[in-house]
Amino acid sequence: MHDPIPPPSASLIKATQPLASVLALRTLPFHAHEILPAFCFYEFVNSFVSPYVSTRLFPQTYPQLSRKKKINWNIHFVSMIQSCFINSAALWVIFADRERRSMDATQRVWGYTGASGMVQGFAAGYFAWDLMASIKDVDVHGWGALIHAASALVVTSLGFRPFVNYYGINFILYELSTPFLNIHWFMDKVGMTGTRAQLINGITLLATFGGSRLVWGVYQSVNMYRDIWHAYSLRGEDPVPPWLAVAYVASNTVLNVLNFYWFGRMVTTVKKRFDKPEAESAKKKR
Question: Are 161 and 109 in contact (CB under 8 A)?
């Protein structure tokens, strides 16, 4: 299936070709017109759209936040937009791309379609921006967020080799839980902590996070490891370089470990939101 977006200009392809050659990312120049605009768009949303919209929708909340909390708010605002968009794009390609669906084990490792490359391009643009933001404000986001952004960018970028581009789209669906995570965070900041709406959203968050990242994510990882091993063991004309397999598997494994760690923290956090009122009520009865 072809990339539905018109191809980049010859000048942009020529400008990005040296970098693509150095990194051995052959299809990167053909999606530079999706990577660069995505990076710029999310920076624009973070720096201008979020402060403007948030001030007008929540005039009693956003302007009163500290610098660090505003940075966090803006990051969640960007994440909300990105996750809704990239989930829709990935699901569309998964269901509409017949060429992708017909791939065998070897093609799932080395195969490529323009539509999949498009999703990878938009995702790479976001993760590049996310990495920049994580480095810039590591004191706010923490080292876990920085490691996640770096690992996600590595995994996404290797899709332009192309390498396991097929699975790259499947892993995009990790983001299915992200809108509910952002909603939960915003509810805390606008005085909706412990409400029935937050409880419903919290349950949905845990269900989608567990389903998309822990169940679906681990299942796809196991399938990917199997296909990589199959391609590596063939040792034909185009074998999988050991360093490439190790780099991708290591990055993917880091993401899976972080997902289990964050799921545990989410369970604890959501539980605290609703344990506290019960504890206070018990004290009053005494």
Answer: no
* Helix, strand or coil, per DSSP, at residue 240: coil
CA-nearest of 225, 202, 204, 214 to 256 is: 214
pLDDT digit string, tens, across residues 225-239: 999 988 888 766 667
What whole-number distance in Å separates Cα of residue 171 and Cα of residue 218?
Answer: 10
Neighbouring residues of 214: CB distance < 8 A, sequence distance ≥ 6: 259, 260, 263
- Give the separation between CA 4 and CA 117, rounded to whole angstroms: 10
Backbone dihedral region for residue 191 (phi beyond 0: left; psi -120 to 50: alpha; all else: beta): left
C-alpha to C-alpha distance for 42 and 82, rounded to whole angstroms: 8
Cα distance between residue 24 and residue 11, in whole Å: 19
Q: What is the pLDDT of residues 211-266, one digit of tens each?
A: 999 999 999 999 999 999 888 887 666 678 888 888 888 888 888 898 999 899 88
Residues of 228-238 as b/e, b for ≥16 C-beta within 10 angstroms?
A: beebeeeeeee
